[in-house]
Design brief:
The protein is an all-alpha fold. 77% of the residues lie in helices and 0% in strands. It has helices at residues 2-7, 9-23, 37-60, 66-91, 99-126.
Length: 128
């Protein structure tokens, strides 16, 4: 656990923030006039999670281990997003799990993965 906190501190913070936002009752501004803002927020949260995960992975590993990256930086965030939707459905009275939220989470992971591969990876390797 200590190694995970040392290697992925920002990722852990983002995970905890997502858990709080997903299961807690954070303040929500009245943005009723903007449709789809909830889905965009889901995509942004999981984009940020995945992009930071890629950044922290690449900073601590000299070469890409594709299987590990697929499991850690793609599959794990998608499964985490699904688990959060199930948790909202089963553990809270004021939140609902939605398929469209899960899809938005997964789109965020996909975009974060693309950013990791094509933006973050070249920057990290250039700065080494």
């Amino acid at each position: 656990m200590k190694r995970i906190l040392r290697t992925y501190p920002l990722t852990v913070i983002i995970l905890l923030a997502i858990v709080w936002l997903s299961l807690g009752t954070p303040p929500s501004p009245d943005l009723g006039c903007i449709t789809g803002i909830d889905k965009a927020a889901h995509a942004c949260m999981y984009f940020g999670l995945t992009a930071v995960l890629w950044l922290e992975y690449l900073r601590h590993h000299d070469r890409l281990e594709r299987k590990k990256l697929v499991l850690l930086a793609v599959l794990a965030p998608v499964l985490f997003g699904g688990a959060m939707e199930i948790a909202q459905m089963t553990l809270t009275d004021n939140r609902q799990g939605e398929w469209l939220d899960f899809l938005s989470n997964s789109i965020g992971v996909l975009l974060g993965t693309l950013a990791g591969l094509y933006l973050i990876r070249p920057l990290v390797h250039r700065n080494r």
